[in-house]
Amino acid sequence: MRGGGRPRAAPPAGDACYSLDIEGRAVPLRVRRNGRARRLVLRIDAAADGAVVTLPPGVPVEDGLDMARQRAAWIAGRLAALPARRPFADGSRVPFLGVEHPVRHRSGCRGTAWLEDGEIHVAGGAEHLARRLTDWLKGEARRRIAPKVADKAARLGQTAGRIALRDTRSRWGSCSANGNLSFCWRLVMAPETVLDYVVAHEVAHLAERGHSPRFWRAVAGLTNDAEGARAWLRDNGDGLHRYG
Ligand SMILES: [Zn+2]
Predict the structure, then answer these.
(1) Which residues contact 6 (CB under 8 A, 6 or more apart)?
(2) Contact between 121 and 114 (Cβ < 8 Å)
(3) Fewer C-beta within 10 Å: the chain N or C terminus?
(4) In this structure, which long-range contacts are made by residues 216-220, counting pairs with CB atoms below 8 Å and at least 24 apart in sequence?
């Protein structure tokens, strides 16, 4: 730990950022408070090549830092096992609904991005390619998620509020108390069954707040392979944060 445990950068959304020294390498460590967390949780932050500690109410920051120090070897192992970063660029390959698609830069073309013969074409200047492709994926995510939300909510006799697409790192989706739903746009890179499961999960929260047996029965009624999708996210979810 460096700097006497002082935050080293402007923390995003109330998180405090530290640096963990692992074998001479500075690994970013984010510490966040969660009023609903019941225990200290340490996990990998694949997007940042770092780690995140979640503190429940009343637990001092130092306890979280201690936990990260004690599990430094685990953190190093998990970070080393992450897939390589895959920047969005001409010629790179991007999964779309679980299928890898080559990316083609079409500088002379108008428009933003489109699918053509199994490739994702992105128009405009090369310096805007990554943003254009991100915007396109976000739009495709919304286009697929919105009707699923409407359909599944109707099956439960519920109405969902607004739908937001974000680049969330810690969760794939969330459901607020007033019924607004939020999803990570990166889910559009996962197989369709995984996207379907995450929508089913959040829509089921419209009817059941917690993760009770009744909640899981509702999820099972809304999607075909919840178990398979959860296993896929466990095994491959971190990899989705390595794109772009
Ligand atoms: Zn949940």
Answers:
(1) none
(2) yes
(3) N
(4) 218/156
pLDDT per position as a tens digit, 89-122:
999 999 999 999 999 999 888 778 999 999 999 9
**Ligand 1 center from residue 96 Cα (angstroms):** 24
Per-residue pLDDT averaged across 16-24, rounded?
Answer: 92
132 CA distance to ligand 1 middle (Å):
31
Going by C-alpha positions, the residue among 158, 161, 153, 148 that lies closest to residue 195 is 148
Q: What is the pTM of this model?
A: 0.86
> Is 70 exceeded by the pLDDT of residue 189?
yes
Residue ranges of the chain that CATH labels 3.30.2010.10: 93-240
Angle at CA of residue 127, ends 50 and 10, nearest 5° = 35
Q: How far apart are CA 71 and CA 79, in angstroms?
A: 12
What's the 211 CA to ligand 1 centre distance in angstroms? 6
What is the pLDDT averaged over residues 174-183? 97
pLDDT tens track for 216-236:
999 999 999 999 999 999 999
Q: How far is the CA of 28 from the centre of ligand 1 (A)?
A: 27
Architecture in CATH of 93-240: 2-Layer Sandwich (3.30)
